[in-house]
Structure formats: structure tokens, C-alpha cells
Amino acid sequence: MTFEAWAAFAAATAVLLVIPGPTILLVISYALGQGWRTALPMAIGVALGDFTAMTLSMLGVGALLATSATIFTALKWAGAAYLIYLGVKLFRAGGSLDAEPRKDASSALKMLGHAWLVTALNPKSITFFVAFLPQFLDPKADFWTQMLIFEATFITLAFANAFGYALIASRARALVGNPRAIGLFNKAGGTLLIGAGIATVAVRSGSS
Q1: Among residues 97, 117, 124, 111, which one has the least CA distance to residue 43?
Q2: Which DSSP category does 35 fall into?
Q3: Among the four 50, 58, 126, 170, which has the fewest Cβ within 10 Å?
Q4: From which residue to which does the signal peptide run (predicted)?
Q5: Whole-number Cα distances in Å, 84 to 25, 76, 195
Q6: What pLDDT shows up at residue 157?
Q7: Residues 42, 30 contacting (CB under 8 angstroms)
Q8: H/E/C letters for each residue in 50-87?
Q9: Does residue 27 contact residue 165 with C-beta atoms inside 8 Å?
Q10: CA pair distance 202, 36, nearest whole angstrom
Q11: How confident is the model at residue 174 (pLDDT cuts 50, 70, 90)?
């Protein structure tokens, strides 16, 4: 793949990861209740969960790519629409995070496993990857090389994102609980997602 394609994927991934979803809410819950020691096991669990969900998704996308170019193109259009839908939903989410502090004593292994389960077995994760990944795949390039690069990039950023959220939540609890800050964050993230979906539609229309 070209450097530009990888850079676009990395930038889009960074934007999407920073938007709180079920996995990050779990990370915040543990960090609020048990402090900074949760950061490393939770981040590892999130990375392993994303690896699982992303691998399953990539294999499905690869099968579609090998089966029909028309179906693969339709999946890209559906993916763009899904990004816009997620953006609108996030924009209207308001200013609250559903993350209650988890004060029950948990071992590092238990936290890691919990993060893996929530990330890997969430059907929305696989749906998201199936919608998101085709936007950056080049059907003419080697699929397995692209899969390796995309997974390594996403998992590295996912680990850093979860680790950062855990540290911030454990030390800046007032910010995490501030409705105004969360509301602005959700609106900014929703706008970026809608923009990503519209940009994808524009690229598809321009190349057709």
C-alpha cells in the first residue's frame, strides 16, 4: 500500500478510537474505582480483543473481496453510511458517560480478561470493522500484507488509547464527570465521523 493510504487509515483510526465506546467505558470504570494500576492490564486486554475482532472481520472482508468485486464495492458504500449513522448517534449522545466506578478488587488477569471479552465478543466491534476496513483496502494489492499492516497499526493505537484513558480517568476524575466537556467531546467526535462518511461517499462518487 502507499504511505498516503496508511496515513489516512492511521489518522481515521486515531479519531475513531478516542471516541468512548463500550470498551473505553469499561476502562474508565476500572480506572475510576481502582486507580492507575488498571492501565496496563486493561490496555493489553483491549489490544487482544481488537486483534480478535479485527482478524475475524478482515477474514470476512477478504472472503467477500475474493468472491465478488461488486459485493465488495457495495460493502464500501454501506460502510460509509454506517460511519455517518455512528456520527449522528454520537453527536446526539449528550453529555454523560455511563461509567460507574468499579470498586470490587480485581486481579490484573481478571481485568485483562474482562477487557478482552467486552472488546472481542461485542457484535458491534465486528460490524464496525467490516464497515470501516474496506474503505482503505486496495483490491489490487496483496490482501495479507495489508491485513498485517492495518492490524499492527490499529492494535498499537488501541493499546495507547486505552492506556491513556485509564491514566486520565484515574487522575482527572472531575474532567471525566464533567457533562459540558463530555458533550463537547461527543459533538466533535460525531462531526468527525459524519465528515469521514461523507468524504468516503465523495471519493466513491468521484472514482465512479
Answers
A1: 111
A2: G
A3: 126
A4: none
A5: 22, 13, 8
A6: 94
A7: yes
A8: HHHHHHHHHHHHHHHHHHCHHHHHHHHHHHHHHHHHHH
A9: yes
A10: 43
A11: low
What is residue 128's predicted lDDT score, i.e. its pLDDT? 74
d(CA 64, CA 74): 10
Q: Which residue has the cell 498516503?
A: 4
Interhelix angle 123-132/69-91, rounded to 10 degrees, is 120
Torsion sign, CA atoms 13, 15, 18, 23: negative
**Structure letter (DSSP) for residue 105:** -
The x, y and z cell numbers of residue 27, run together, are: 476502562
Cα 11 off chain centre by: 12
Task: Tell me the chain's radius of gyration from C-alpha atoms.
Answer: 17
**Distance, CA of 104 to CA of 42 (rounded, Å):** 15
What does the alpha-carbon distance between residue 102 and residue 89 come to, in Å, rounded to a whole number?
Answer: 27
In sequence order, what DSSP letters do the residues of 146-167 get, joined into one string? HHHHHHHHHHHHHHHHHHHHHH
DSSP assignment string, 166-202: HHHHHH-HHHHT-HHHHHHHHHHHHHHHHHHHHHHHH
Which residues, including other chains, have CB under 8 Å from residue 149's CB and lie 6 or more apart?
1, 6
The three cell numbers locating residue 44: 493489553
Fill in the amino acid letter for 172: A
Average the pLDDT over 11-18 and give the result: 80
Residue 141 scores a pLDDT above 80: yes
pLDDT of residue 181: 67
Burial class of residue 160, CB neighbours in 10 A (0-12, 13-18, 19+):
middle
Length of the chain: 208
